[in-house]
Structure formats: C-alpha cells, structure tokens
Design goal:
Oligomer: single chain
Distance between the termini: 33 Å
Number of domains: 1
CATH class: Alpha Beta
Mean pLDDT: 93
CATH superfamily: Aldolase class I
Number of strands: 8
Helix content: 40-55%
CATH architecture: Alpha-Beta Barrel
CATH topology: TIM Barrel
Number of helices: 14
Strand order of the largest sheet: 1-2-3-4-5-6-7-8
Shape: globular
Order of helices and strands: HEHEHHHEHEHEHEHHEHEHHH
C-alpha cells in the first residue's frame, strides 16, 4: 500500500522581485498547434487512444465522462474485461456502490495504456461522489495510486484529479505532503485558486468554457475571445501565481472554441480536446504569446488561504455565484457519469455470468 504519514504544511508565498519583461518572440512553426507546443505544454483532454497517437501530447487527462465516452469503442472492451477479472480476484469487496471499485480499475487500465503512449503524465480522477469528504477522497487517491503501482507505474507519472471543494483541497494538501501530485479540477473562483496554491497543489485546471457558458446564459450575450470571462479568470490566476512565486502549474481546460486557446497561448499547460487540436493544426496564422512568466500585471494583493482560512475561503468563494453554481453542477454531472459507468459495468458483468 502506498502510505506515508501526512503532515499539514502551508505554502508561504513570497512576492517576486524579478522585474517584468516583454513577451518572447513569436515561435516559428508550420501551424498554430506546433507554435502552441513551443509556448505551453499541450495535454490531450481525452481518454481515446487514437487521439493520443495522432496528436502526440505530452500528458493526458481523463475523467468519468471521458472514460464513459471512450468505452463506446469496442477496442476498450479488453480494459473492462481485465478490470472485472482483477476485482473478482480481490473478492469484490461490498459497498454502497459495489461496481465503483471496478470503475477505479477500469480508469487505471485506460490510464496505464495512455502512459504507454504519452511521455509525461496521466491524470486520473477521484470519484466525484466523495468531493465533500476529505478523508474518503484521500483514501480513494491512495487506492488509485496503489492500482497504478501494481501495474508497474511510477507514481511520479500520475496526477490525481480532485474537485476543488474545501474538503478536496484539504485532501490535496495531505497527498502532496506524501509526494502524490494532485490536479485540482472544477476550479472556477479566484478563492479556489488561492487555496489550492497555499495547499501546495501540483497543478490546477481552471475551466474556461464552463465559465463562459454561465456568463452567456446569465447575461444573454456572446463574448469575443479577448473579452471571454473564462479567459480573464485564467489570466488573473496565472499573473497571481507568477507574482507570488507559486510553483503550482496552471493548466487551462474546458474550451468552447479555439479562440479561447489562442488567448491563453503561453499558459503553463493547456488541455485540449481532439476537435480543437485538429483546428489549431489546420491554422497557419501567427500565434503570439498572451502569457509568459515575467509579464507582470498582477493587480491582486496576496490572499492567505491556507488550512486555517476556511471561513475566509467560503466568504470569498460564495461571493462568486458563477463559481458556486458551476462547481456543484460539475460535481453532479461527473457523479451522474460515474453512475452510468458503473451501470455499464454491472450490465457487462451480468452478460459474462450468463455465458458461464
């Protein structure tokens, strides 16, 4: 078992003393995807193996929705068959949702396959049903790491994805202290970003497109990429992290159009779905830097949002109705897809038993 004693450690930020600098020269490249790869680490937002082979990203990230989509491909049946076999060997431990453990093994099987293709890391998500339980999230994360270790995977090639609730952030803090890197997902508010950084999160995934969705509906209008509220949120977080020397990686995620991606060129990491990867690859227009480490421009005072700042966190987060709505909606949707995945597993198991 991957276990170590957890300690609570708050990250102490120091303001940057490095002067700001102009953007680097525009990269010379055959297309925008190639240019973007010179500015940011490009991550594939998919669980589909064909996309990994075609677009050759550095890292890969998945979630229950992407695993569920990938399982529509008959090629993935072998991963499910093996997951069921592995849990049968363990005796199918009973629980409120007995197929949840098979779903864990399935996610690890797919993640292990992706790690045979990408040179970097894969993100695997903790069951969203546990998003408001720090202890259960911590235990589930350790279980996922154990499953990967049994597959011969070095934990340093993993990110454990956790919803950026207060409880999820506290689980992240314990896991990071044990050397398990976390990818904090469903991040919508500046308060969430501050708290994740103070918890020492390895990486955050602010959701650009879902922020845009909320504002379009609330304000009954469209937004050009340069005024996109999701883009503005990521730029604010990026500048804040660089100003106060946080080491947490900013990985922009959840895009609705390629224009949003272009507006964030230079962000630490960018995770992109296959259709938008294809669109960027087809464009030969110039792609200038929009973000770079020494750009300056942070307008926020440092916000201490460590484990002692629970009330401060909620006061700040709850002021942002968009963030409150989208966080809960994201947890609900991932939970629903997790249940669909478990139902699919149950149907496959019944079919197997009927053949025996």
């Amino acid at each position: 078992m991957w276990r170590a004693r957890a300690r609570v450690v708050a990250y102490v930020a120091e303001p940057s003393s490095t002067p700001s600098a102009p953007p680097p020269p525009e990269p010379k490249a055959a297309n925008q995807l190639e240019a973007l790869r010179q500015m940011s680490k490009v991550v594939a937002d998919t669980g589909e193996i064909w996309a990994m082979k075609e677009y050759k990203p550095i890292d890969a990230t998945t979630n229950p929705s992407l695993v569920l989509k990938a399982m529509q491909d008959p090629e993935y049946a072998r991963f499910l068959d093996d997951a069921i076999y592995q849990e049968r060997r363990r005796g199918f431990p009973q629980g409120i949702r007995p197929n949840a453990l098979v779903a864990d093994q399935l996610a690890v099987n797919i993640g292990t396959e992706l790690l045979n293709i990408v040179p970097g890391r894969v993100s695997t998500e903790v069951d969203a049903h546990l998003s408001y339980d720090a202890g259960a999230t911590y235990d589930k994360a350790l279980h996922l790491v154990d499953l990967y270790v049994q597959r011969g995977v070095d934990p340093k090639r993993l990110y454990i994805k956790i919803a950026s609730t207060w409880e999820g952030i506290r689980a992240c803090e314990m896991l990071q202290d044990e050397g398990i890197d976390c990818n904090m997902t469903l991040l919508f508010s500046f308060a969430q970003a501050c708290a994740c950084a103070d918890a020492g999160a390895a990486l955050i995934s602010p959701f650009v497109g879902r922020i845009l969705d909320w504002h379009k509906k609330a304000n009954n209008r469209d937004y050009a990429p340069e005024e996109d509220p999701g883009v503005a949120s990521v730029k604010r977080i990026y500048k804040y992290y660089k100003q106060y020397n946080y080491h947490t990686v900013v990985m922009a995620a959840s895009f609705r159009n390629a224009g949003e991606i272009r507006q964030l060129a230079g962000c630490d990491n960018i995770t992109i779905a296959p259709p938008l990867l294809k669109e960027l690859e087809a464009s030969t227009d110039q792609l200038p830097y929009q973000l770079w480490p020494r750009m300056g421009g942070c307008e926020d005072e440092h916000q201490r949002m460590d484990y002692m700042a629970r009330d401060k966190f909620y006061a700040a987060h709850n002021e942002d109705q968009m963030a409150v709505d989208k966080l809960q909606e994201g947890i609900d949707n991932f939970s629903a897809d997790q249940r669909k995945l478990e139902d699919m597993i149950g149907a496959a198991m019944e079919k197997m038993e009927a053949k025996q």
